[in-house]
């Protein structure tokens, strides 16, 4: 089965990743209810997000320690961005200018500037971070689930620092 999917803003397409040891990003036409194509990403793509304008998708490639950048219209990978070990989760800032990627092996979050497509900062968090969400209320706060120590890290995105931890 697939581990993650996103749907285009117009509701016409779904983008799927994460079949066990697959390298594929699948594009599905939801109106026609058929597979359009598959695109080879990196080893074991785990999570996918779309840019706010829907033109790009960002895929965490767990075994390659990178994020693949997909041009949605051209259905091609246009570049890859090296991040920390075993990237599993990704979230975009409210304005879509920055991506935050959890690196499970390193206990870090990579901060990616999506204009330059480069890592601009690395934030230490808990052990084995996985999921990440950015608050809709305070868009400068992110929450990271840390499976290695059963905590939630709280990040201040205006300073790229961890400001608290919640035991779970």
Helix content: under 10%
Taken as a percent bin, the fraction of beta residues is: over 45%
Distance between the termini: 29 Å
Number of strands: 16
The radius of gyration over CA amounts to 15 Å
Structure characterization notes:
The protein is mostly beta strands and 168 residues long. Helix content is 0%, strand content 58%. The protein has no helices and 16 strands. It has a 4-stranded antiparallel β-sheet, with no helix packed on it. Strands 5-6-7-8 form a 4-stranded antiparallel β-sheet, with no helix packed on it. A 4-stranded antiparallel β-sheet has the order 9-10-11-12, with no helix packed on it.
Task: Summarize the helices and strands and which ones pair or pack.
Elements: E1 4-7, E2 13-17, E3 24-29, E4 34-40, E5 45-50, E6 56-61, E7 66-71, E8 76-82, E9 87-92, E10 98-103, E11 108-113, E12 118-124, E13 129-134, E14 141-146, E15 151-156, E16 161-167
Antiparallel strand pairs: 1-2, 2-3, 3-4, 5-6, 6-7, 7-8, 9-10, 10-11, 11-12, 13-14, 14-15, 15-16
Task: For the structure shown, list the relevant keywords.
168 residues; mainly beta; four-stranded antiparallel beta sheet; 16 strands; 0% helix
Quick structural summary:
With 168 residues, the protein is an all-beta fold. The protein has no helices and 16 strands.
